[in-house]
Amino acid sequence: MTAIEFTHQVASLRPTLRLFTRRFTTDREESLDLVQDTILKALTYRDKFREDTNLKGWLFTIMRNTYINNYRKAQRARTQRDDTKELYYLNVEDTHTFNKPESSVEFKEMWRNVNDVKDELLVPFKMYTTGYKYHEIAQHLNIPIGTVKNRIFHARKEIQKRLVGYRDSE
User: Which of 8, 35, 93, 164 registers the highest number of CB atoms within 10 A of its CB?
Assistant: First the structure.
């Protein structure tokens, strides 16, 4: 398939892609951006497309992955969206002060309960909560991935039991 044929086929699927964005967002602007990003990536990585592949499915996969990556990026950045006219909230000075949980007694007591869990369970749990993936933890600790998942599950259960007991004792 030539570059021109590929471009025409991708362009002809634009309305279908627009409809597909409804699975991810109801925001019109975000939807249009997602379609645009998808088409841009498809055209950029045209050489990765194989002739025997379903083009529409390939584009849907690109769109889904783009949406997920954008969502994760936004979560990491903890950005807030300002939909007000003239971006009012972004221009308002933040005069709020918040208590830091590290200074609260309850926070310290909670972490004491968490840290009382045996190391065999706590190490994979802490690695997971700090962003490591299951396979990375398994590789680092030199244990099977199933064992990692099991230990994280049991660590959660143990911590939940301890925290419920802590709440009841207040």
Answer: 35
